[in-house]
Amino acid sequence: MLIPLLKGILLGFSIAAPVGPIGILCIRRTVTLGRLHGFLSGLGAASADAFYGFIAGFGLTLITNFLLDQRTLLQAVGGLFLLYLGIQTYRSDPAKDPAKAKGETLFRSYASTFMLTITNPLTIMSFLGAFAGLGLGGSQAGIPSAAALVAGVFIGSALWWLALSLIVGILRERLNVGALKWVNRVSGAIVTIFGVIALLGLLQNDQNIGKEIEADLHKIITDKSSMASSNPGQYIANNQESYDRIVRHGDAAIVYLTKELKASNRNGLKEWIMAKACADILQENNPVEEWETGKQWLTKYEQSN
Predict the structure, then answer these.
(1) How far is C-alpha 35 from the geometric centre of its chain's CA atoms?
(2) How far apart are CA 165 and CA 220, in angstroms?
(3) Any stretches that span the bilayer, and where are they (predicted)?
(4) DSSP 58
């Protein structure tokens, strides 16, 4: 129990420590609103870290897959929320006395950073990668060990935010209202930039999806264990995880696969698997009932639209 707890504390601390938009908000709120607002801002992020640590620690693949499937939506929501917070912070006037800060409540400080962290798809990916790389958690871990890991993640993350808010709080006493206004301007601008970067990243996602799909397709069609079979479905069966990743891309995969099917001058195994993936994504909305080749499926699909 003690070892998983200590590992969780180190992991939570190390994931929380890099300064990003949450760190900027924590620093700004500590300076302009006081240590408690700053600490609760960090605690919101720590709670989200613990939630994702729980998913990774207990090996909850169903929830993990759902969150990864929705990563584009989560990134969009998080990016827009960052823009909102950044602009609001930039335009706000600081109150020298934290008790006089308008519209700023302790719950709001906590909830805003919780939402920002929970809508960041990189958070769950960070925990999955860290847990897998360190051999922590997963379905093979016992409940006590997994629980200790999750508790450690929360404690480690909270310790970082406590230390940050305490250290920054010391500087607050030396700043006048003019300096506090500049803190708002600079931190607001930085958070807004993070929001813009998150939204611009959505444009890059389409290219990334194409690369991921091509990598999975290549793995499926070059599988040596399936080459003895004349059944294309065997290639999928032997590489189910790769195929499922393609299908989980949903509508984005259909757009990419139909475009590639149309551009392809071949009509072989790869094209069949591409058409099969489209049909599986569409499910009951698939207008093509009978088809033998990928090109045949595409022709009938386009004729039905």
Answers:
(1) 28
(2) 50
(3) 6-27, 39-67, 73-90, 110-134, 146-170, 182-203
(4) T
CA distance 150 to 62: 18
The 3-state DSSP class for residue 2 equals: helix
Nearest one of 23, 11, 22 to 114, comparing CA atoms: 22
H helix runs in 93-176, sequence order:
106-118, 121-134, 143-172
**Helix, strand, coil abundance in the chain, percent, nearest 5:** 80, 0, 20
Residue pLDDT, tens place only, 74-125: 778 888 888 888 888 888 766 544 544 545 688 889 999 999 888 886 776 6
Q: Any idea how long the chain is?
A: 305
Chain CA centroid to CA 76, Å:
11
Show the DSSP H helices in 1-142 as ranges.
2-16, 21-33, 35-57, 61-69, 71-91, 106-118, 121-134
Q: Are 28 and 89 within 8 A, CB to CB?
A: yes
The DSSP letter of residue 225 is G
Q: What is the pLDDT of residues 42-86, one digit of tens each?
A: 999 999 888 887 877 676 656 666 666 677 777 788 888 888 888
Residue 59, by phi and psi: left (phi above 0), alpha (psi -120 to 50) or beta? left
Sign of the torsion formed by the C-alpha atoms of 70, 76, 82 and 88: negative
Sign of CA dihedral 24, 29, 35, 37: negative
- In whole angstroms, what is the distance from residue 231 CA to residue 237 CA? 10
- Among residues 124, 158, 133, 157, the alpha carbon closest in space to that of 54 is found at 124
